[in-house]
Amino acid sequence: HRTNLARFHADAHIGQITGTFTRVRTLAQCIHGKVHLYRWTRAGEEDVLVAGKRMPVANVRANVGSETNDRLRHLDRRGGQRGQPSATEDALNEIGVLSFLGAQPSMSRYLLRMLTVFEADGH
User: Fold this and answer.
1) Which residues lie across from 25 on neighbouring strands?
2) Could you give the strand order of the β-sheet that contains 20-30, starting from the edge strand earlier in sequence?
3) 3-state DSSP assignment of residue 8
4) I need a surface site. Which of 11, 18, 38, 99 has the fewest CB within 10 A?
5) Is the pLDDT of residue 34 over 70?
6) Distance between CA atoms of residues 76 and 18, nearest Å
7) Is residue 70 part of a domain?
8) Least confident range of 27-36, 51-60, 67-76, 89-98
9) Beta bridge partner(s), residue 33
10) Domain range for residue 56?
């Protein structure tokens, strides 16, 4: 059975920023950046406190073009682009999975709900 580690890359929809995000505090370190608590302000809507993961765009796209077969990637750690090691965390795949789940007609209330994804200032 052949796996496709990039299956959800196509479901990752990265749009334009809407509103402004004001950092309230840092919540945690993560593999490729930090998770912050933000106040999200949008015209005509109440401000909302949200958690946001901020990482460089290059890290989000680190596995694009990498080996997609799980077995082959495990056996050959050079499964990344042009013989480079592939990233342990596939952020683009995570965005794709959360986008896919969020588009389903009935999403479990126990799953993290992604509100938006955008690029700004190289992050």
Assistant:
1) 37
2) 20-30, 33-41, 48-54
3) coil
4) 18
5) yes
6) 41
7) yes
8) 67-76
9) 30
10) 9-102
Q: How many helices (H) and strands (E) does the chain have?
A: 3, 3
What is the pLDDT, as a whole number, of residue 86? 57
* Residue 46: inside a domain: yes
Note the pTM of the prediction, 2 decimals: 0.81
Whole-number pLDDT of residue 121? 79
- Give pLDDT tens digits for 46-66: 999 999 999 898 888 988 988
Torsion angle of C-alpha atoms 50, 110, 55, 28, degrees rounded to 10: 70
- Does residue 96 form part of some domain? yes
**Residue 73, strand partner residues:** none
Q: Could you tell me the CA-to-CA distances from 32 to 18, 48, 64 in Å, in that order? A: 23, 25, 16
Enter the tokens of residue 29: 């370190």
Number of separate domains in the chain: 1
Task: Supply the DSSP string of 105-117, one letter for each residue.
Answer: SS--TTSPPP---
Neighbours of 41 (CB within 10 A): 13
